[in-house]
Write a structure and sequence with these properties.
Elements lengths: L22 E5 L3 H6 L5 H22 L3 E8 L7 H24 L2 E6 L7 H14 L5 E9 L1 H17 L10 H6 L11 E4 L18 E4 L9 H13 L10
Parallel strand pairs: 1-2, 1-5, 2-4, 3-4, 5-6
Bound molecules: farnesyl diphosphate.
Length: 251
């Protein structure tokens, strides 16, 4: 079999390699509208959205961005028509199965955040297998938020800490921001430096509420399936113009 040529994306000259975000989070919005605008069923937008995500993941890896986290399914998305929810679950499972070999070859470490126990069992198994098989990879940390809600994340961390206090293993005054972060689904990942949201909505939509405290937010009107490398380049150029002060004044 002839191996597929490896596509590499060179870093554009105008981007400063030492000022890139180390963790990019994305709210992939606008799949339905993209499809509707073309007279297609909504699911075609999700299908195309997977291609966008694959390209973005490669691009992040090639440009030296250490982590990408994508909001694939929120705790609120169960309220969508049952056919769409079923389609998304099947799509996640199929994509995971199909892309695993490539992710292995490309040194991607995949993780999932959210309450995975509510997902179909076969999807949970596929996720577990992908996590295990890629756990020692160091190319890029790719995190997929599935059945994720920022409030639920905070509540489950509170529960875990409360149980430790109840068991007498932790004193309330020992609870620090660092310890709390360590009990979130995203433990061991740095907080995102940049949040990108497509399709123009100015909302966080219950994504990474704690972790986005100091993230720069970039919103574009472009719909997710159309968010290509040049759009990502624009987002990073805008990010590099920002003055990140973290609540302090400039030195
Ligand atoms: C939001 O667009 C998109 C979603 C809720 C699903 C996103 C999922 C993918 C792109 C697939 C990712 C796959 C893997 C394996 C991680 P929308 O449907 O809300 O669009 P609309 O606002 O135009 O209706």
């Amino acid at each position: 079999m002839i191996p597929k040529p490896v596509v590499r994306y060179p870093l554009p000259n105008d981007l400063q390699p030492d000022r890139l975000p180390q963790h990019v989070a994305v709210i992939m919005d606008g799949n339905g509208r993209w499809a509707k605008g073309r007279g297609l069923p909504r699911i075609m937008g999700h299908r195309r959205g997977v291609d966008t995500l694959k390209t973005l993941l490669r691009c992040c890896r090639d440009w030296g961005i250490g982590a990408l986290t994508a909001y694939a399914f929120s705790t609120e998305n169960w309220g969508r028509p049952v056919e769409e929810v079923d389609f998304l679950m099947t799509l996640f499972e199929r994509v995971l199965r199909q892309e695993l070999i490539e992710m292995m070859a490309e040194n991607v470490r995949i993780r999932f955040v959210g309450d995975l126990s509510a997902l179909p069992l076969s999807l949970q198994q596929e996720m577990q297998s992908a996590v295990t098989k890629t756990q020692h990879h160091q190319g890029i940390n790719f995190t997929v938020a599935t059945n994720y809600g920022g409030r639920e994340d905070i509540v489950q961390a509170c529960r875990a800490l409360a149980s430790q206090v109840q068991a007498g293993n932790l004193a309330p005054e020992e609870i620090t921001e660092a310890l709390f972060s360590h009990h979130l689904y995203t433990a061991n990942l740095p907080d995102p430096d940049l949040l990108i949201r497509t399709s123009g909505e100015m909302r966080i939509s219950n994504f990474l509420l704690w972790q986005l405290a100091y993230a720069e937010i970039y919103v574009t009107d472009t719909l997710w399936p159309d968010f290509d490398i040049s759009e990502f380049h624009r987002a990073l150029a805008a990010y590099q113009q920002r003055d990140r002060r973290f609540g302090k004044v400039k030195a």
